[in-house]
Specification:
Layout: H1 12-30, H2 37-44, H3 48-54, H4 58-69, H5 83-97, H6 101-113, H7 117-127, H8 129-145, H9 155-172, H10 178-193
């Protein structure tokens, strides 16, 4: 193994990017359960201390790597003019992202962190913030159009449909068939939103 101290010294964003790229490469090559801080440090040609300075554990490093892969930019909120189609668009994006190593990593992260409530809360806060923001925008737009009452938009309702997709994935794996997504929207979410 090459000595990481012999190359040019990288710092800040350059080093962090190298570490996150190495974490993604490890995820793709060996899967979540075999990724270690040591293996990522070796691939990034840095020390484990450089990783632990930034992330306290593997789970938080992997979440950061997955966000890094997404480019860090905001994802456009669908705006088809239809609540049903907008929600399906978000769910289809989510289902598609669960194919491949992202899904493998998500399953590993959730399973690993179920034993520690504090880590689980931290993980959820990082992983689902963007998705919840999209769902909130979709629901608020639908309320402004008169499709649903504004009073039904609560944090639980916002996360409801995506959580059902996650649950299906955790139990059955990928790929998630489109009829599962349309069933979640048509049979569960829309009746919930349109209740009196």
């Amino acid at each position: 193994m090459a000595d990481h101290r012999k190359g040019p010294r990288r710092r800040g964003e350059l080093l962090q990017s190298a570490i996150l790229d190495a974490a993604l490469a490890e995820l793709a090559e060996v899967g979540y359960w075999r990724v270690t801080m040591q293996s990522v440090a070796a691939r990034a040609h840095t020390s484990k201390a450089s990783l632990y300075k930034r992330w306290p554990n593997r789970a938080e490093m992997v979440v950061a790597a997955l966000r890094h892969r997404g480019g860090g930019g905001p994802v456009a909120t669908p705006d088809t003019g239809s609540l049903r189609e907008d929600v399906l668009c978000v769910l289809r994006r989510g289902a598609e992202s669960l194919n491949g190593f992202f899904g493998e990593a998500a399953r590993g992260l959730m399973a690993e962190n179920l034993t520690n409530p504090e880590d689980t809360a931290n993980l959820r806060a990082h992983m689902f913030t963007g998705r919840d923001k999209l769902m909130r925008e979709i629901l608020e737009r639908a309320a402004a159009r008169g499709e649903i009452p504004a009073g039904v938009i609560t944090p639980r309702v916002i996360g409801f449909a995506p959580a059902l997709v996650d649950h299906h994935f955790m139990i059955y794996g990928a790929p998630i068939r489109d009829e599962v997504l349309t069933g979640i929207v048509d049979d569960l979410l829309l009746p919930l939103l349109m209740r009196d």
